[in-house]
Design brief:
Its main location: cytoplasm. It is a single chain. By secondary structure, this protein is an alpha/beta fold. It contains 9 helices and 13 strands. The model has no long low-confidence stretch (mean pLDDT 96). The chain binds adenosine-5'-diphosphate (ADP).
């Protein structure tokens, strides 16, 4: 099984002619309410990819929370809600996109930030992969990754978004997954544009059995170990919308590791899953099922 600790958000996505300047009011041309949060997106991706998926997360006692709970259930994710003290709203992200595709995002994390280390109970028996991202408090993630809690399980941390303080978690992870922007932030590089630049990830490795997986957009992905690296090129596609590609990659990779795949063997399939996610708008709706990805790989 895959056990995940992560964020749950409702995304309010508005299309505007131009982004508002300070003090300005702008009317949206179109507004959509979409399920989101890196945690929820990755949980759906792992579950659709075939993993028995458990998600620890927090929602408010409100309609948005109920809606997100139903989205997780429809997608086969076993939701383990954290009980919160007092009234906290479900997390929200307000996303404005202008004509040129530029965006402005405001995240109101709400219930996600109320998760405390005391809320993390014992692991689900039989879990092989423990997965977290950085949209929930770091002390809760530290408790989730406690060595005596996870036993021989694999700790996978998606260091997204880049939070400098999260470096304290790196020694207690087995697989760290970063995109180019995040790797540049953690290694204080101006830019990461390909595999050669990604080798800088070695400075984040503190143990022989640790590795960093770097996603390179249209460049695919690579795994960097202390003494070796391996690059898997991306599937050739024309993206419709890359929202959710990174989350799809992480969820699919977690599902494959849960099956016992080696990372080197899993990367081409995770790339193919993420490429398929770029063919559909949105996060949750874009996550492919395993059979669809296998069919593309067999061609
Ligand atoms: P993020 O979405 O976090 O910025 P990336 O852009 O690195 O992450 O994308 C994650 C993965 O999605 C990549 O490793 C790749 O497999 C796939 N992907 C993203 N963009 C494309 C693209 N233009 N063509 C093919 N695959 C893509």
């Amino acid at each position: 099984a895959v056990e995940l600790l992560g964020s749950i958000n409702v995304d309010i996505v508005t299309a505007l002619k131009h982004l508002p300047r300070p003090g300005e009011t702008v009317l949206a041309r179109k507004t959509e309410k979409l399920p989101g949060g890196k945690g929820a997106n990755q949980a759906v991706a792992a579950s659709r990819f075939g993993a028995d998926t458990y998600m620890i997360g927090a929602i408010g006692d409100d309609g948005d929370g109920e809606w997100m709970e139903s989205i997780l259930a429809e997608n086969g994710v076993h939701f383990l809600p954290v009980s919160l003290n007092g009234q906290v709203p479900t997390g929200m992200a307000y996303i404005a996109v202008d004509e040129k595709g530029e965006n402005q995002i405001i995240v109101a994390p709400g219930a996600n930030t109320a998760i405390a280390s005391e809320n993390i109970g014992p692991a689900i028996p039989g879990t092989r992969v423990f997965l977290a991202q950085l949209e929930v408090p770091l002390d809760a993630i530290a408790a989730f990754f406690q060595p005596d809690r996870v036993g021989h399980g694999l700790r996978v941390l998606n260091g997204a978004p880049a939070v400098p303080e999260a470096r304290v978690l790196f020694p207690d992870t087995d697989v760290l997954i970063l995109n180019q922007t995040e790797l540049a932030a953690y290694c204080e590089l101006s830019e990461v544009s390909g595999v050669e630049d990604a080798l800088a990830a070695r400075q984040l490795i503190t143990r022989e059995d640790q590795c960093v997986v770097v996603t390179l957009g249209a460049g695919g992905s690579c795994v960097i170990r202390r003494n070796s690296h391996y690059h898997a090129p991306a599937m050739k596609v024309v993206p419709v919308d890359t929202i959710g590609a990174g989350d799809c990659f992480v969820g699919a990779l977690a599902a494959l590791l849960d099956e016992g795949s080696r990372i080197e063997d899993a990367l081409p399939l995770a790339n193919a899953a993420a490429a398929q996610a770029t063919q559909v708008s949105g996060g949750v709706p874009a996550m492919p099922v395993r059979a669809a990805v296998d069919a593309v790989m067999a061609k």
